[in-house]
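Sample A.
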Amino acid sequence: MSNPDLNLLLTLDVLLTEGSVARAAERLQLSPSAMSRALSRLRQVTGDPLLVRAGRGLVPTPRAQELRRQVGPLVEQALAALRPSEQIDLGQLQRTFTLRSRDGFVENFGPALIRRLRQQAPQVRVHFVPKLDRDSQPLREASIDLETAVIDSDTSPELRTRALFRDRFIGVVRSGHPLSRGPVKLEDYLAGEHILASHPGHAHGRMDEALHALGRRRQVVTLVSGFSAALALARGSDLIAMVPERHTSNLREGLHSFCLPLPLPEMTLSLLWHPRMEADPAHRWLRQCVYELCSDVAATLPTANTAD
């Protein structure tokens, strides 16, 4: 079998991105007839029609959708390999990056990151957006540049990752709460009413899973989508919140934090990005900034069993 024409990868990437023979031809500076012939060759090579007529337009087949996820990173990596290494001038760099994270991250690490950007690259802007789910599609679509997350089985294997710091869950109550008077025993913990901070669609958290293994359960009376809301409820009531310690350090001022009576495994917060950005010099610089700042701040955070 003869080797396939690797030039077809670029053609396929553009065709699947544009979803139009005419637009793909214009982007690659080819005639529509030449692009049509290229599509025919791609159909022969892949054994799939790839793009089929639907009304006045074309829609991708399931095979085409699968190929789009595979081919895009391959083309980006190939172009990066052929591109000369760039030395960026941070003082002249004009760019806006979007970073998605759960609440608490911006409060703890955002000010230091902004100061670093102002010092090194004053024309660079960062747009912080909330992380409301675990969908990695925004990274694939380039609507965000970076994301923070705890890596698990739901994390897309195509994404690049770098560990930032280890964290653990702690309990939090208002100052003067009965659980703030000494070490918290499991029976006292379970006797209280609890707040669950979770992504939509998840009615149980890590503590509930750990308790279920022991044949026990806690009384969750309200669900919220973020740590800030959980801490706000705990601040104004007798409800008990459970939040990651380092991630929420600056949000817990004036509240009492304590070690959970049933310790949960530590977790690692990581930085995620799409492979297309791997070799981008400015993106690589920003990733290093976030990594350094998170590592520095993490080393100085307080421990539980304190009133912040």
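Sample B, a different protein:
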Amino acid sequence: MKTKIQRASERGKANFGWLNSNHSFSFGHWYDPQKMNFGALRVLNDDIVTGGQGFGAHPHDNMEIVSIPLKGALAHKDSTGTDGIIKTGDVQIMSAGSGIKHSEFNASKTEEVNFLQVWILPKQENIKPRYEQKTFAVAGRKNKWQTVVSPDEKDGGVWINQDAVFSLASAEKDSVLIYKNKFSGNGVYLFMLNGEAEVNGETLHKRDAIEISEADEFEIKLKEGSELLAIEVPMLK
């Protein structure tokens, strides 16, 4: 098993007043040639947006864009005709495909929203743009993995145009989680949303991450109650 730790403090930072963002990989004005991607995982931004603010309409193409609200809610509009709200507990995916325009604003005028914006390189380019969101019960991830994004509709997650899987877990102190790859040879980017855990002898704290490759299964020991996100992606050559 090959691993690489990324501490929360090592992430790129951008603060525009209305937006406070931490970048796990090079994005916008922050560039680190050693942090361009992990396999097909290109972007993981941890964004906090103040009340009433957000991202105006802008274009994307050939990217799978996943949004996971952690606190608050987002108002989303796009050129497919979608106009709605995604809230904590929801997972949204937008397959930009041949081209799409969208906007995302804090749905509250007063309370901040904190969400993860994740970009995955697509398996097939120039597909017809599509949008999907789904609500997931927190009880479905207690001390186990809950699949929220997958190319296999039988997994119960939103569909993605890539051999990639997103899974969430809410684990109790002193429990052990086993992660098993859905696709042999994939890598896993394990992101600690909250809590403390040990992987391969390394201790991870809130917003720390570990890149895991060359292993189709690994163990996570929980040192305290924790929330985790596992992003399984192809390791691009």
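Observation for Sample B: The longest strand covers residues 41-49.
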